[in-house]
Amino acid sequence: VLNLIFFFGILTFAQSDNEFQIEIPDGYITAFLADDKTEVANVIGITAKEVDDYFKNNYLEFLSVSEDNTSQIKLSVLADEFSSKIFSFNNLGDEQILKLANSLFTGSYEQVSDGAKIVRNNSVKFLKYEETLTDNGGEYTVTQYVTVYNGKTYRLSVFIGGQEKNLSDTVFESLTFNESNEVLSPLTKIFIIVGIVIFAVIIVLSIFR
């Protein structure tokens, strides 16, 4: 049944404040931060308040849960000192990004850097980390995609129960950022200002020569 949902379900569209756009497979119940959480809570088996607290404590923008509660998709967005300093993964080299893996991922392994890899979504660099875990409900795969973009840390997490392995990449590839909202990093702004000042000085000197 899950395979039918994943492969043949109609993709539905989700967005938040025009910052990002993402497609969620049909057969999922989705709630955004400002939405009523009752329907999602009923699927998970907890109260709407507990879901709302989970959103706030984990900086979630949305949470999607499959109707049988075997898979979840969620996206967190956090602006803090770390994301402000990095501003964008695109400002860093691949090796620099990989060195951040251990601090960005919480997994069952003490060191995750060996399992993390860099993937691209359009022009945006992401760190990807995947692990397969087992609990009382059986085996499931957790895939996380993390990037820093426009001074915010975006973390897309996909929890998959069963044998379906393509869902995480399909959802990840559908995630896009609204480039019209892209802002310049503080360092870039400084370079631009310095460039303008130097250009103005050159013009003034040429006039008074």
Topology:
Layout (H helix, E strand, L loop, with lengths): L1 H7 L3 E5 L3 E5 L3 E5 L5 H7 L3 H10 L2 E7 L5 E7 L2 H6 L7 H5 L2 H4 L12 E5 L2 E12 L2 E12 L2 E10 L5 H8 L1 E2 L8 H22 L2
Antiparallel strand pairs: 1-2, 2-10, 3-4, 4-5, 5-9, 6-7, 7-8, 8-9
What does this protein look like?
It is globular and about 75 Å long. A seven-stranded antiparallel β-sheet has the order 3-4-5-9-8-7-6, with helices on both faces. It has a three-stranded antiparallel β-sheet with strand order 1-2-10. The longest helix has 22 residues, at 186-207. β7 and β8 form a beta hairpin. It contains eight helices and ten strands. It is an alpha+beta fold.
Using brief descriptors, characterize the structure shown.
209 residues, alpha+beta, seven-stranded antiparallel sheet, three-stranded antiparallel sheet, 8 helices, 10 strands, 33% helix, disordered N terminus
Helical amount:
25-40%
Q: How much is the radius of gyration in Å?
A: 21 Å
| Spatial strand arrangement across the major sheet | 3-4-5-9-8-7-6
Work out the number of β strands: 10
Order of helices and strands: HEEEHHEEHHHEEEEHEH
Quick recap of the structure?
With 209 residues, the chain is α+β, with helices and mostly antiparallel strands. It is built from eight helices and ten strands. The longest helix is centred in the last third of the chain and has 22 residues, at 186-207.
